[in-house]
Design brief:
4 copies of one chain form a homotetramer.
Chain A lengths: L5 E6 L6 H14 L3 E4 L1 H6 L18 E6 L1 H11 L6 E5 L14 H9 L4 E14 L2 E8 L2 E6 L6 E7 L2 E8 L1 E5 L7 H4 L4 E2 L5 E7 L9 E4 L4 E5 L6 E5 L3 E5 L4 E15 L5 H8 L6
Parallel strand pairs in A: 1-2, 1-3, 3-4, 4-17
Antiparallel strand pairs in A: 5-6, 5-17, 7-10, 7-15, 8-9, 8-14, 10-12, 12-13, 14-17, 15-16
Chain lengths: 288, 288, 288, 288
């Protein structure tokens, strides 16, 4: 990593103790001569300390982006940063997150370590998704967790036809379908019955949501696969959602094409906290 | 059951061979001097044989209602008939249904038997549901299968707080919640991970849909219970659906109150087909 | 309940702080002029305070039996007491149990209340089980939680054919089959994917363990049912277990017949702790 | 693959039509001047046609081994052949298997194709397993499907502590633990709730069997991982099973170490039958 001269700061709104933390952080950076760029939320927490910069433009010129919030804030930051090789330093403001594993207590010591270049980077694979309508690509997205197609309204279930590398998998009659990265395996996919996938496994997971056919179980495919989902539901009866945050309604015969993104996310991780340690705490697996 | 002088006929639209079946049925009834009342779909299948009568009014004066269709048609018929003690004679026009277990081949022999009063009646408990908003009851429904509260839009999950007989059960963070009768246990609840409940068990099942807390498992309560679900999702973020067919958007703090209905549904069943026989066929459990 | 003149005491072995608790309990009873009968473990905890009486004989002449231990101790006590209408007062010596919900802190206040006759009794349905071999009944058991048939050795799975009230349900190819009471629904059946059943639901649950046919889901039947499981595994390849504690190897063609016992268990429960409160704590469902 | 001069033949016992098939196969090979080596079962099916050779020695000098049977026969053959790069040609004598996808109708055409070198080879990763007791390795196994540790007797559950690459994962209280290859993901692991893993995914799956902690879900790790399971059950309370076929009782503190084997299995596959086609048929997913 280049030496850090400018950091971006992205914060979650409406967190009671966030304002004082942002101010302390800015003071700390000022003392070390490090410049910063603030997203609109961070700017609002620290009036007069810097202009509000839209999240999409925030990463420009930064060597690291600090996220203060929860996993949701980090997901949004990851999409904003996607395609640039800038590490995210993710601090959880509430409970431990699967992704935001640095606590506020650890913020300054870990930041100190990162400035010295002694931090550990975890790379997380992202998922590229495009929506094809007839011959045209009508939208493109990049996801850290998952690409989800669900029934949009009252409809009991929708019909989705899945292909992997052009081979027919099956026709799902279900509430929906989740295409998940290993990172996303502990998010929505887990609630829908999917397995936990270690981040470095080179795979994607297709998890059906409440499938009508009870034998339709989660399927793990190599991450070199191209996954294609053909929407057989009527116009606007199915909805596409990226990381649970953005999306659009789908039309009949839309094809959603998912593949591993050439970009991955660089996440600064505290040295003591490993994947299974986070799992044990989040899933209350108990201790030795 | 009173001797059958008039039957209602409710049919599923857009079934290729339904028109000729309806005509044969009317001829058969004419020969036996039995009057009939046709719903709009049945009337359209047999032009000139009778006026189209709205489903809600159809049961009046009937001693039996014949349903030609699938489980969906029967669910709609059951709600139309609810509160009147008129047996439903349910013929499946497509594949075997959980509820529509009489095949078209068996239609006339079974009808013959029913006219002689030799048929078996299965009683299915129904579920009464009301939506309370502040001090007011804003709507009432009756369900044969289930009362379902789900996230309405892009929202990842909604917060629903459940009480049984005024005792706090838990706060669910989930895609939604299903309150199911034993009859509905083989419908949506089964897809969401619920158990199969024999129709005569005096119980209701609360099945969470993709719960965030993995230990939130289906809960079976006595059917004398009053189940109350408080919607903690924002206005219009949650949607109420009855039997997968009708419903309405919910507002924050709406209370959905479910209890066993005083009414039950009377279903004419073929003498040889038992609950477990249907299960084995529908779920492909294999044979002896 | 009759006024309490004599109590039985059953204790779990090898619990560090149990000896002093037993001694305190005996002192407390002595002060109130209440006699006691000690099982071998309780007698060993309090040398010189009373003879060791086998558990089977312990309930004689008692108006209440105090169990000091965990759910396992209570299961054994329930079988020893079965058929006599003597309430069990179950104190957990370790963590909260599903059945042993009285903590050691609450022991004396709750006991005081019980002596005044102000305690609440919860009745739990038990399960009677017999093993038929040819024309003969070779053994009989009574279970509070469950009757379990599992593969005994290396065998990958066993064949078990289930009938409910003489109607064929299906042939299971599985690691085994659990027939559970509502009380047992939170024990082994839950681990095998079964639902949680409120204690007062008049039902039994048949839960397959790792079934080969993925659509073989838990089935809830009325507790008036007679459940018959025919063992199609070779001699000694299947094993019968009662409440996870006692049992025997099975021979091919043995029939295991389960039905609700005419006896139920009377459990003294603390007034504030309700079924869902225990569930929330044990399953870590979180709070309001 | 070398040109085929000698084939091994391994057959499943007690299959009614197998004898005539073996004889036809030997005639067919004789006509083409191809030598054969018969395992004891194949030799018994075709008396006088060749000596019975133990399975372990059978592969010597063969350029291909034909397996006539089901997936179980193939698993045994795979272990016999392990470490030698000889393709298995697996014909199912009964229903379609996940591994034995060549039907008896296809036997001779596919064999013709294989002799011409036009067949497709699918490589399946195998799993090496060793049992460490103190400082000593007491046994070594190789598995195509899975390494399974289960409770051996009546015991309700056992304690198993899992590590991945020396990092503590968790302490499982369960009926057992399955370490599965992608190939094994459609076998026992699927019954225990594991996902379906495409054969070419470079991963192993750790699936708990009926875990007491409901959040203990299947975990997918890279196949470069070393998985270590420490048995905390009492001597002989836990049992190790390889591919559901061979194994041994375990002692307390035994460590079972699993890692991807350097050897993989070469499987001759019919050109039209793809992984998802087999899945759809076996799991009855329905068609387009």
């Amino acid at each position: 990593m280049d030496s850090i001269r400018t950091v971006g700061i992205i914060a979650k709104p409406d967190v009671p103790h966030a304002a004082s933390l942002v101010v302390s952080l800015l003071d700390w950076l000022d003392q070390r001569g490090i410049a910063y760029r603030l997203d609109p939320v961070a700017a609002a927490y620290a009036p007069g300390r810097g202009a509000a910069i839209p999240r999409d433009e925030l990463p420009e010129g930064c060597q690291m982006v600090i996220v203060l919030g929860g996993d949701g804030t980090l997901l949004a930051a990851a999409r904003a940063i996607a395609g640039r090789d800038i590490p995210l330093f993710a601090v959880n403001l509430g409970g431990l997150g699967f992704l935001t594993t640095i606590s506020t207590n650890e913020l300054f010591p870990e930041l100190e370590r990162a400035l010295r270049g002694e931090h550990r980077i975890a790379r997380r694979r992202m998922l590229a998704c495009e929506v094809r309508r007839g011959e045209e690509t009508v939208s493109r997205y990049i996801a850290l967790n998952d690409v989800v197609i669900t029934k949009a309204h009252i409809a009991r279930m929708i019909d989705l036809v899945a292909y992997v590398d052009a081979h027919f998998v099956c026709r799902y009659k279900a509430d929906g379908l989740i295409v998940s990265t290993p990172t996303g395996s502990t998010a929505y996919s887990l609630s829908a019955g999917g397995p936990i996938i270690f981040p470095s496994v080179a795979a994607l997971c297709i998890t059906p949501i409440c499938p009508h056919t009870l034998t339709n179980r989660p399927v793990i495919v190599p991450d070199a696969s191209v996954i294609q989902i053909v929407n057989s539901a009527a116009d606007n009866d199915a909805y596409l959602t990226i990381d649970g945050q953005v999306g659009e309604p789908l039309l009949r015969d839309d094809r959603i094409i998912c593949r591993a993104s050439p970009h991955s996310l660089s996440l600064v991780r505290p040295p003591r906290m490993l994947f299974f340690d986070v799992l044990r705490q989040k899933l209350k697996w108990g201790e030795r």
